[in-house]
Write a structure and sequence with these properties.
By secondary structure, this protein is an alpha+beta fold. Helices cover 37% and strands 15% of the residues. The protein has an 8-stranded mixed sheet with strand order 4-3-2-1-5-8-7-6, with helices on both faces. Helix 2 crosses helix 4 and helix 3 crosses helix 5. It is globular, with a radius of gyration of 17 Å. 43% of the residues are buried.
Length: 221
């Protein structure tokens, strides 16, 4: 089966998204881009993540948008995934979820400020894209624009979209940005959260580039 390992990985992370409370039912979608073949593998539309079979993962040509393989309808948000693979080379996996706190902020059409340093995983603050009907090219373009130089974006009145170099990376961004959205919601509920300054977030972004890759230098205490 073409791209079988990728298909199975998509099913695994789809289930994990539900189990971790990041989406419900058949909501959300996940994809991976195989750069060698320029094919995008994406979850199907309207099928429970625990029922998806590998052959139902849909393969789509990134450049043309034509379906290459798959025994089901592709996610309605296929264009929103494909636009990133077509015009950005730093993202090889995309995850879209309807997590509670990110969706809450998106319904207020508010960005997520740098209330916690973990938002540096997404590149700093997280913008909110302009509203467009789900499954449309307009939404794809709005998301792409708002996620410029970032790895995550809020979709107005909708949810959260994040990308990474792998599904594991994208999933980590999704989890941490949802965490930051919850922190922002809770701190706003009891007061005015202190937002980290831009220079500190710039340092955090740089530190995360080496996170888990090499030993950090430490000052003498």
């Amino acid at each position: 089966m073409l791209l079988q390992d990728i298909r199975e990985e998509l099913i695994y992370y789809g289930k994990k998204a539900v189990q971790n409370g990041l989406t419900k039912g058949t909501g959300g979608n996940l994809s991976v881009c195989d750069r060698e073949s320029s094919i995008m593998a994406i979850t199907p539309s309207g099928i429970d993540y625990f029922e998806i079979k590998p052959e139902q993962i849909v393969l789509i040509d990134v450049q043309t948008g034509k379906i290459v393989d798959g025994d089901a309808l592709p996610s309605s948000e296929r264009d929103m995934h494909r636009i990133f693979y077509k015009y950005r080379t730093d993202l090889d996996a995309i995850i879209h979820t309807h997590s509670i706190f990110a969706a809450t902020l998106s319904c207020l059409r508010q960005p997520l400020p740098a209330v916690h340093y973990m938002s540096a995983l997404a590149g700093g603050d997280v913008r909110c894209a302009e509203y467009a009907t789900y499954g449309t090219v307009a939404l794809a373009k709005n998301a792409f624009k708002a996620m410029a130089d970032r790895k995550a974006v809020l979709l107005a009145n909708h949810g959260l979209l994040a990308g990474g170099t792998s599904l594991a990376d994208a999933f980590n961004v999704i989890e941490e940005i949802e965490f930051c959205c919850e922190i922002y919601y809770r701190t706003k509920s009891i007061g005015d959260p202190v937002i980290l300054p831009e220079d500190e977030m710039a340092r955090m972004v740089e530190r995360f580039k080496a996170y888990g890759k090499k030993p950090e230098e430490h000052e003498e205490i």
